[in-house]
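Give me the fold.
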Amino acid sequence: MKVQYRACKKCKRLTPEKTCPVHGDEKTTTEWFGFLLISEPELSAIAKRTGITEPGMYAIKVRQ
């Protein structure tokens, strides 16, 4: 079964759910482009540059 990921419009975290697991009430969208997989944000230069502090999958660009 294929999983379709959705991106939170606020934090860009990818999830298969219709609401963000971090923000709860924030809606997600299927209109996103590219992704980052951050496993150790405290050691990642990309995570620091993008402001990501939690491990996870994040969209690079989210269409609002």
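The chain has a mean pLDDT of 93.
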